[in-house]
Design goal:
Layout (H helix, E strand, L loop, with lengths): L8 H14 L2 H6 L8 E3 L6 E2 L1 H13 L4 E12 L3 E12 L9 E10 L2 E11 L17
């Protein structure tokens, strides 16, 4: 079975959040580069480096059994021919929990290789409690 070729960083990111929402470890790992320098930081967790450690971190997260709905907003994109960096707000809703939670700020890094674009880093951190935004697609302006 050949691995999917992602033609843009956005395709990788969409597939990443789809796999995240479905708790699908195989789909999740299909978005990651096979280089052993990949890294991932989940909110409140230590940094993990290497494909096996990244896979293990996602298996642990998915093994909790919680079903999540994730929407992203306020993207800030820096993109070149070989690398792209996306900073987004992740709005995470746990199935059965109707409380509104502060978003998670995430940075996703993608690199282009011989088999298309792949994720090389995901860093997610909690944000301070903040009032919900009226329009989650309006860019956040910081002074």
């Amino acid at each position: 079975m050949s691995k999917r070729v992602f033609t843009t960083p956005k395709e990788v990111e969409d597939a990443f959040y789809e796999a995240f929402s479905r708790a699908d470890i195989e789909a999740m790992m299909a978005v990651w580069s096979e280089d052993d320098e990949v890294m991932c930081i989940h909110p409140g967790a230590p940094r993990v480096v290497g494909l096996a450690a990244v896979r293990d971190s996602w298996q642990q997260l998915f093994g909790s059994g919680a079903r999540l709905k994730i929407n992203i907003s306020q993207p800030v994109v820096s993109s070149g021919t070989m690398m792209a960096i996306h900073s987004v707000l992740e709005h995470v809703q746990v199935e059965g929990d109707n409380d509104l939670h502060s978003p998670i700020v995430a940075t996703n890094v993608f690199m282009r290789g011989p088999l298309g674009w792949r994720m090389v880093a995901h860093h997610a951190s909690p944000t301070p409690d903040m009032a919900p935004l009226n329009d989650p697609d309006t860019p956040l302006i910081v002074h």
